[in-house]
Write a structure and sequence with these properties.
The protein is mainly beta. It is 6% helix and 49% strand. The longest helix is centred in the first third of the chain and has 14 residues.
Length: 514
C-alpha cells in the first residue's frame, strides 16, 4: 500500500473548478439584473504540446483546474503529462486539452453551501470533503474481500540446514485489508499532506495490525519536492507509488517480495530532471517501520534508497506508472529504471514474523538471518549490512504490456556472536509480467513468472490471472489468480503464499478502490 507521493502531489483541487464552470454556465443562461450578485467566472484555457515537448499556458489557478476534454494523440494524465502551478497550466509529450479554471468566488458564494449536484468525486483521487482558500481535504477508500485456497501446497518444507517445518494450508475468506487515506493541502497547494489508517484483517493479533501513519511534503516546483514521514523506500518498481494498481490485487510476485524494501520513516526528495526523467532519493530509519517501535531502532539512521527512471518515448507510463496497460496507449510507451538501497539492519529493528508488509531479511530457503543458531550452534547474527539494486524495463501499446525487473542483493559485515565464519551472501532474482486488455477497460488477462537464486537454495513461481473491471473503469474489480510455487522463501498472512510453499495456490478477490 503504498504511499504515492507523485500521486499525492498530482491529486489537486479540480472538482471545485468544474462546479464553478457549471454555475457560470447556468448564470449565463439566465437574464441578468442589476440586483444579481456577482458570480464566479469560469474560464476555458486551451493548452497543447507535441511529443517530446512541454508547454505552459498562463492562467489563474488559485481555485483549481480540471481537464474538460483531451484533444491530443497522447493521453492527458494528471501529474504525468499535465498539471499546474501558481501561474498556469502545463502540458507535455503530446497531451493537448481544454482546461477549466475558476476565478475567486464572491463573498456570498463562499458562504453558500455546495449545491446537491456538485461534482465531488474525482476518479483515483477520491471524494472532496472540503475545499476553500485555506485548504483541501480528499478522502479515499481501498478494501477487498479475498477467498484463499492453499490446500494444493505440500504440508511441510525442509530448509537448507535440514530442518523440517509445517506449512499452514489455509482455506478462508477475509476482508483482507482496509485502507483509508486523507489527502490535500493546507494554506498553500504546495504544502501537502497524506495521512491514513490501515488495517490488515488476517493479521489481527499480530504486531502492527492497525496502522495510523502518513507524511507531509512541500513542492517547490516540478523539479523538487521535499517530504518527511512514512513512505515506501524506492527500492524496487512496486514501491515507487503504484499501489494498488498492480495486475494482482495487493500481492507482489515472490521475487519482488523477497528483495524489496518496505514502508519506513525518513526524509526524501523527488521530482523531474526533465519531462522524461524522474528521480527519488530517501534517507530513512530502517527497511521497515511496521511493527518496530522507536526504542528498537539501532540509531544508525543510514538507510538510503535511490530511484531514477527514464520514460523515453511518451514521457509517461500510464496512471501512476501502473503495471499493465489499462490506459490503452495509442502510442508505444516505454520505461527504464534503476534502484539502489543500502541499510545497516539490526535484529531488534526487524518487524515481527507475521507483521503486515513484512520486509524481513531472509535467506533464499526462507530462513530469517537473525534466527539464533541458524548458521550453527552458538552463532547468532545481531547486525548485517544490506545492499540491494534492481533494474527494470517495460513497454505498453494498445492494451498489451511486457514488464520485467532484475534484482541483486548482497549481505555483508555480519556482526554478533561467533559470526566471523559467515561468508558474504549474494542473491539474484527476476520477474516478468505480461498482460493484455482482452476487452478494453473491462477484461484483462495476465501471465507472470519469477525466480530467486542463492547459495541457500533456488525458488520460482508461475502465475496466471484475470481482472474484470465491473463498471469498465478502475474502482470495482474482480480478480482470480492461480499461482504455482516452487520452494517459496517469503510470505506472511496478508499475501496468498506462505514461507516454504510448494505447490498450487488459488485465490479470488473483489476490490473496492475509489
Amino acid at each position: 500500500m503504498g504511499v504515492r507521493l507523485r500521486a499525492i502531489r498530482g491529486a489537486v483541487c479540480g472538482a471545485v473548478a468544474l462546479l464553478l464552470a457549471m454555475a457560470a454556465n447556468s448564470i449565463a443562461a439566465t437574464p441578468s439584473t442589476e440586483a444579481a450578485a456577482p458570480a464566479a467566472q469560469a474560464v476555458i484555457v486551451a493548452c497543447s504540446s507535441k511529443p517530446g515537448e512541454r508547454q505552459r499556458c498562463a492562467a489563474d489557478t488559485s481555485h483549481g483546474v480540471v481537464l474538460a476534454r483531451s484533444l491530443g494523440e497522447s493521453p492527458c494524465l494528471l501529474g504525468k503529462t499535465w498539471g499546474y502551478d501558481d501561474t498556469g497550466v502545463w502540458v507535455a509529450d503530446g497531451c493537448s486539452g481544454e482546461f477549466v479554471v475558476a476565478g475567486r468566488p464572491s463573498a456570498e458564494e463562499e458562504k453558500a453551501p455546495p449545491s446537491k449536484g456538485s461534482p465531488e468525486y474525482v476518479p483515483n483521487v477520491g471524494f472532496r470533503l472540503y475545499e476553500g482558500d485555506k485548504g483541501q481535504i480528499y478522502v479515499r477508500l481501498f478494501s477487498y474481500v479475498r477467498y484463499l485456497n492453499q490446500k494444493g501446497l505440500d504440508a511441510t518444507y525442509t530448509d537448507a540446514f535440514g530442518k523440517t517445518f509445517s506449512v499452514k494450508q489455509r482455506e478462508d475468506v477475509q476482508l483482507n485489508k482496509f485502507f483509508l487515506p486523507f489527502t490535500g493541502w493546507f494554506l498553500s497547494p504546495k504544502f501537502r499532506y497524506y495521512l491514513y489508517v490501515w488495517s490488515s484483517n488476517p493479521s489481527q493479533g499480530d504486531p502492527a495490525q492497525v496502522v495510523g501513519a502518513g507524511n507531509l511534503s512541500y513542492t517547490f516546483n516540478r523539479h523538487l519536492s521535499l517530504g518527511g514521514g512514512i513512505t515506501s523506500l524506492p527500492s524496487v518498481r512496486s514501491t515507487e507509488g503504484q499501489f494498488p494498481y498492480w495486475l494482482g490485487i495487493d500481492d507482489r510476485l515472490t521475487s519482488d517480495e523477497f528483495f524489496r524494501g518496505s514502508y519506513t520513516s525518513g526524509f526524501w526528495l523527488n521530482g523531474e530532471v526533465s519531462t522524461k526523467i524522474k528521480y527519488m532519493a530517501m534517507l530513512a530509519n530502517n527497511l521497515s517501520t511496521l511493527g518496530v517501535s522507536a526504542s528498537q531502532l539501532d540509531n544508525t539512521f543510514d538507510t538510503t534508497s535511490f530511484m531514477l527512471q527514464w520514460l523515453p518515448t511518451t514521457g509517461e507510463f500510464g496512471l501512476y506508472g501502473t503495471f499493465g496497460d489499462f490506459d490503452q496507449h495509442e502510442k508505444v510507451a516505454t520505461r527504464l529504471a534503476g534502484h539502489y538501497t543500502h541499510s545497516t539492519e539490526d535484529k531488534q529493528s526487524q518487524p515481527g514474523q507475521n507483521g503486515i508488509e513484512n520486509s524481513q531479511i531472509r535467506l533464499t530457503d526462507g530462513s530469517v538471518i537473525f534466527t539464533p543458531d541458524l548458521f550453527g550452534p552458538g552463532i547468532t547474527v545481531e547486525k548485517v549490512t544490506y545492499n540491494m539494486s534492481s533494474v527494470d524495463g517495460g513497454i505498453k501499446y494498445k492494451g498489451l504490456s511486457l514488464e520485467a525487473e532484475y534484482y541483486w542483493r548482497w549481505l555483508r559485515n555480519f556482526r554478533g556472536t561467533n559470526t566471523s565464519g559467515i561468508a558474504d551472501i549474494d542473491d539474484h532474482g527476476f520477474q516478468v509480467q505480461s498482460s493484455a486488455m482482452v476487452v478494453p477497460h473491462a477484461l484483462q488477462a495476465y501471465l507472470s513468472g519469477a525466480q530467486i537464486r542463492g547459495v541457500y537454495g533456488n525458488s520460482s513461481e508461475v502465475r496466471a490471472g484475470a481482472n474484470w473491471y465491473v463498471v469498465q473503469s478502475r474502482g470495482l474489480r474482480v480478480n482470480a489468480e492461480w499461482i504455482h510455487l516452487d520452494k517459496c522463501p517469503v510470505g506472511y498472512t496478508a499475501v496468498p503464499y506462505p514461507v516454504g510453499g510448494n505447490g498450487n495456490v488459488f485465490h479470488t478477490n473483489f476490490e473496492l478502490n475509489f
